[in-house]
Amino acid sequence: MLAFREMLGHIRNGFPSRWTSALTISLLSVLDFISFIGLIWWFAMKGDFALIPGAITILATIYLACVAILGILAFGFGKLRSVRAAVLFYLSIGLFFLLNGILGLSGRIFSPWPWILIWIFTLGVVLTNFSREYYGQKKSPDDEGEG
User: Fold this and answer.
1) What is the Rg, in whole angstroms, of the alpha carbon atoms belonging to the chain?
2) CA 64/CA 23 separation, integer angstroms
3) Residue 99: pLDDT over 70
4) What is the pTM of this model?
């Protein structure tokens, strides 16, 4: 719980106003939950709970609209590279499902393996930037002279 509170404080400090940080935290939470559920559905439950490709396309479009709002906040107002990298991660997930829905409408099979490599890479970028930002925030001015 303490780590979660520290992460939220880190995100709050990366945005100039309270409404931008609150909207960013809300969008990150919603997109993270939806991404998790969507990927679990795709890899584990797609056969049991099938969705028509049109529904996948519509849901992916709504998801990408939320990603666009997060992108405007992250690139226009925020200064955290980790949040900007998270936008790219969510964008890749949204595009994955959008392409899956569009190709499903024409009856084509969609391979997830190139996308898995993209997700691993972007998550690595997110975590690397977050650890650099978080460590830099916790570093005191006295520590910078040592080394």
Assistant:
1) 18
2) 16
3) yes
4) 0.84
